[in-house]
Amino acid sequence: MNLLAKSCFCPGIVALLGNLITSAGEQEEEMDSDWLEEYTEGMGHEIYRTDKSIKFKGKKFCEVAAIIYTEF
Q: What is the DSSP letter of 71?
């Protein structure tokens, strides 16, 4: 099922994923409402691609995620 169709089951998923992979920078202007201020602050949490360490070679994703979570 494509992403647009999934947004019917999970409203906001397109905005969430778009914000995670798009660099927005810091918003300097004052916002009118609390939710908008929280939303723009959350836009600063992006995902970046990076090469993984040789330490993770042969490990499953869940193992790598657990190591990263506990160490960092």
A: H
